[in-house]
Amino acid sequence: MEHPDTDSLRPGPRRRVLITGAGGQLGVALAAAFAADDVRALTREAWDVRLPAPAAAGTPDLVLHAAAWTNVDGAEDDPQGAAEVNVGGTAHAAELGAPLVAYSTDYVFDGRKGVPYLESDSPNPLSAYGRTKLHAEAAAGAQAWIVRSSWLFGPTGHNFVRTMLRLGAERDEVAVVDDQRGCPTFVGHLAGATRELVDRGAPFGTWHLAAAGDCTWAELAEAIFEEAGLDCSVRRITTAEFGARAPRPAVSVLRSEKAAPELPHWREGLRACLAQLEIC
Ligand SMILES: NC(=O)c1ccc[n+]([C@@H]2O[C@H](COP(=O)([O-])OP(=O)(O)OC[C@H]3O[C@@H](n4cnc5c(N)ncnc54)[C@H](OP(=O)(O)O)[C@@H]3O)[C@@H](O)[C@H]2O)c1
C-alpha cells in the first residue's frame, strides 16, 4: 500500500489545501477543520468540476474533493449528468497530481449483508448515484484516500436533520422510514477525522469513516425532536410506503477493519449540530 509523502503533507500554515464543493455541507466543515492550513475553498461557481481545474486551483499539496452530485433520486432520471459530476469531477481533481481525499458513500453497498460493512466487502450499488460514486472511487487514482461515510448532516445545506427541524416545527406528526439502518454522521466529526487520517500519514486506499452507533431514519427523527424539544410524533413507515425514486440499501452501517480514526456516536454528532444551530 502506497504511503503519502508525509513531509509535504505535514500540518501547518504552509500546507496548501484545496477544497472542492466548498459551498456544500461537508465543504464548509472541511474549511473549518483545516483552518490552520493555507486553504483555498472553491465553490461550484469557482470550479465546476465537470471541467478541468481552473488557474484558481493553484498547486495544492492536498485536495479535499467534496464536490458531488448528491441528489440520489435525481440521479435515477439523469445518470449521465450525475456521472459527469461524480466520475468526471473526481478524475479532474485527481489530475491536479496532489494527494486526494475522495469522499464516497455507504450507497456503494446493496445492504443485503445485514451486518456492518468493512472496507474489504464487495460493493454492489443499487442506485444510479451509488454506481457513479463507485466509478468515482476508481477515478480517484492511486494517490487517494477513498473516504466512505454515510447519512451526512450539518448546520448548513440540505440534510435530514434540517428538514426534520422544519417539519417538526410545522406539524404534529411526520411519517419516516423505519426499515433502513445506517450511521448518521455529523460533517464536523467527519472533517476532523479526515484531518486525523491525513495528518498521521495513513496509507492511501479505502477508509470507512462514519459515526459510532447506528439507527433508522425514524429513530433519528425521534432523537432530533427530543433533543430540539419539538412536540412532533414519528409515524414509522416502510421504504415501500415512502416510495422514493431510487432504491437504497436496507442496512448500510459502515465500520472499519483498519486503524481508522474513530468518530463520536451519531447522537453526540446530533447534539453538536444542534449546538451550532443554537437549538440546544
Ligand atoms: N449527503 C450524504 O448523506 C452523504 C453520504 C455519504 C457520502 N456523501 C458524500 O460526501 C461528499 C460531500 O457531500 P455533501 O453532503 O457535503 O453534499 P452537498 O451538501 O450536496 O455538497 C456538494 C457540493 O458540491 C457542489 N457541486 C455539485 N455539482 C458540482 C459541480 N459540477 N462542480 C462543482 N461543485 C458541484 C454542490 O453545489 P450546489 O449546491 O450548487 O449543487 C455542493 O456545494 C460527496 O462526495 C457525497 O457523495 C454524502
Describe the structure.
With 280 residues, the protein is of the alpha/beta class. It is 35% helix and 17% strand. It has 10 helices and 12 strands. It has helices at residues 6-9, 25-33, 72-77, 79-94, 128-139, 160-170, 187-199, 217-228, 239-242, 266-276, and strands at 16-20, 38-42, 62-65, 100-105, 144-149, 152-153, 173-177, 181-182, 185-186, 205-208, 215-216, 233-237. Strands 2-1-3-4-5-10 form a 6-stranded parallel β-sheet, sandwiched between helices. Strands 6-9 form a two-stranded parallel ribbon. α2 links the parallel β1 (16-20) and β2 (38-42). α4 (79-94) runs parallel beside α5 and α8 (217-228) crosses α10 (266-276). It is globular, with a radius of gyration of 18 Å. The mean pLDDT is 96. The site of NADP nicotinamide-adenine-dinucleotide phosphate has 26 residues, from α2, α4 and β4. NADP nicotinamide-adenine-dinucleotide phosphate binds at residues 21, 23-27, 44, 47-50, 66-70, 85, 89, 103, 105, 133, 149-152, 157.
What is shown here, in short?
It contains ten helices and twelve strands.
